[in-house]
Specification:
It contains 15 helices and nine strands. With 512 residues, it is of the alpha/beta class. It folds into two domains: 292 residues, Aminopeptidase, CATH 3.40.630; 183 residues. Strands 1, 2, 3, 4, 5, 6, 7, 8 and 9 form a nine-stranded mixed sheet that branches. Helix 6 packs antiparallel against helix 10. The longest helix is centred in the middle third of the chain and has 31 residues.
């Protein structure tokens, strides 16, 4: 920083961050939410912080570590149950259509609550799920003078249960996810139409012609659907703009999966062609669509997330834990040797949250415990997640339905401009889930997130065993040397960028 010779992005600090990642992976390993390894890693980092911070606390909380992912099996089961009930429609069209429609609407509501809002919803009461203990690590640095502001730097220390579809089929994960969501919407529309038609039947209103026209239209749709999916994912998917280029570099396993499902659907289509052509009905179309989706339902039920196997989580999220820990190292250096750089009136907290991979539970619990007290003064959170891209820094202004505060992002943008870093600002992509920023925001703390995620390559390693120490470059490289694939990211460079942005943010906040 100006007026001082202290170099933030030094070999010493870069090595410190690399060694943090290496130490956790070699001495602890994977860190599933609420697991013993998650606690060991948290305690290890707490010990590391004790000789740096003015105080360190380990704040325990309880949550349901299986609730965020466990609902998927329940949703698949309900889809099948709803369809089986729908087949009984001739017994009582109105009652059966109503039950099937309500079940599907409930499934869609589950998807919305869990996938888009990260809520535990009713699944936390499911008998298969139990409450377990996790913890947040909180290190505090008091300023030289009166505490007038507070800045929190955070990252989650847990790693996720392995996403087996991603692990074995890479881009096939997105294909199966998009497929099942589309089919859920289609089933809801079909059940809704059947429900509306059953009302007309009950009122003895003849709408046979309308039903026939709709049934024929559905028949055409059902015939072309498998071809549509193949063209979209294997041909259109090669475009850089299609889902941010995720499918441009598709692995062979994903191509085989998509072609295999297409071949299966084609067999169903040919086998039932006569069945559909002769007197097409909504029920016939629904049956064929359900047969189409069976492979995807099997994938989601058996291979969505592992119960016992967690991934190493080198990039997601030790690559963000390391800069948070290095912030503590730098602040100690400043306090002891460069006091003019140490904050005057800003309290700094470094926070390592647990259970982010379970729906940002650690961030939520931290905000529940502290937001009211902290917000008496200006308190902001800069969260970090997955620092792997050294050529550009990502800043989120929206996650899901949650807007992130511009007063934080405006300063982060200033920091990037001051440091000469390229940046992108925008909503978090739907293909990348969410970060702890939404957890902090949900319960009253103003927060935003920095991220170094290259979406084009993310399916090749994300939430799989490939997210290991091999992805972290042992030697420092220039920031412009960001690598050419997921196998040679400049993780050190990305971490150095995040470190400098955060400390620049602290400098600006302290001078406000």
């Amino acid at each position: 920083m100006s007026g001082n010779n202290y170099v933030i992005d030094s070999d010493i600090n870069s090595d410190f961050m690399y060694n943090i990642i290496k130490k956790v992976l070699e001495e602890v390993g994977p860190r599933a939410p609420c697991s013993e390894n998650e606690r060991k890693a948290s305690e290890m980092m707490a010990e590391e912080l004790k000789n740096k911070c003015d105080s360190v606390d380990l704040e325990e909380f309880q949550t349901y570590p299986r609730a965020l992912h466990g609902w998927v099996k329940i949703a698949v089961a309900l889809v099948i149950i709803g369809f089986m009930i729908y087949l009984l429609r001739p017994l009582n069209s109105f009652i059966i259509s109503t039950i099937s429609l309500l079940i599907m609407f409930f499934v869609l509501y589950m998807v919305f609550k869990h996938l888009f809002l990260y809520d535990e919803f009713i699944m936390k009461y499911w008998p298969l799920f139990k409450k377990e203990t996790s913890q947040n690590v909180v290190g505090t640095f008091k300023p030289k003078g009166e505490v007038k502001k507070r800045v929190i730097f955070s990252a989650h220390i847990d790693s996720t249960p392995r996403f087996n579809i991603l692990h074995y089929f890479r881009d096939g994960y997105m294909y199966s996810t998009i497929s099942v969501l589309l089919f859920l919407v289609l089933f809801s529309i079909l059940y809704l139409m059947q429900f509306i038609f059953s009302i007309f039947e009950t009122l003895s209103i003849n709408i046979t012609l309308l039903v026939d026209i709709i049934s024929i239209g559905l028949y055409v749709f059902v015939i072309i659907l498998p071809w549509f999916f193949m063209v979209v994912f294997l041909i259109v998917g090669k475009s850089e703009t299609f889902f941010l280029g995720v499918f441009k570099h598709m692995e062979l396993s994903a191509t085989v999966l998509i072609l295999g499902i297409f071949a299966y659907q084609l067999v169903i289509e040919i086998s039932l062609f006569t069945y559909l052509v002769i007197n097409p009905t909504i029920m016939k179309n629904t049956i064929v669509l359900f047969l189409y989706i069976i492979p995807v339902l099997i994938l989601q039920y058996f291979l969505f997330a592992s119960k016992k196997h967690a991934v190493p989580g080198a990039l997601d999220n030790l690559s963000a834990v390391a800069p948070v820990m290095c912030i503590a190292k730098v602040l100690k250096d400043w306090k002891e040797n460069n006091s003019d750089l140490y904050p005057n009136n800003t309290e700094v907290k470094v926070v390592l949250t647990g259970c982010e991979e379970n729906g940002c539970r650690g961030a939520e619990q931290f905000a529940i415990k502290h937001a009211e007290k902290y917000n008496v003064i200006d308190t902001t959170v800069v969260n970090m997640d997955t620092m792997s891209e050294s050529r550009i820094q990502g800043i989120f202004n929206k996650e899901g339905l949650q807007d992130l505060p511009p007063e934080i992002n405006d300063i982060l943008i200033e920091c990037c401009n001051d440091l000469g870093y390229k940046y992108s600002i925008g909503p978090m992509s739907v293909v990348a889930g969410g970060t702890d920023a939404r957890g902090f925001m949900k319960y009253g703390l103003r927060a935003s997130s920095l991220i170094g995620l290259n979406i084009k390559w993310y399916h090749h390693w994300y939430h799989t065993d490939r997210d290991n120490l091999d992805l972290v470059n042992k030697e420092r490289r220039p920031l412009a040397d960001g690598g050419t694939s997921w196998k040679d990211f400049n993780v050190r460079g990305a971490m150095e960028m995040a470190l400098k942005i955060c400390l620049k943010y602290l400098e600006k906040k302290d001078k406000e």
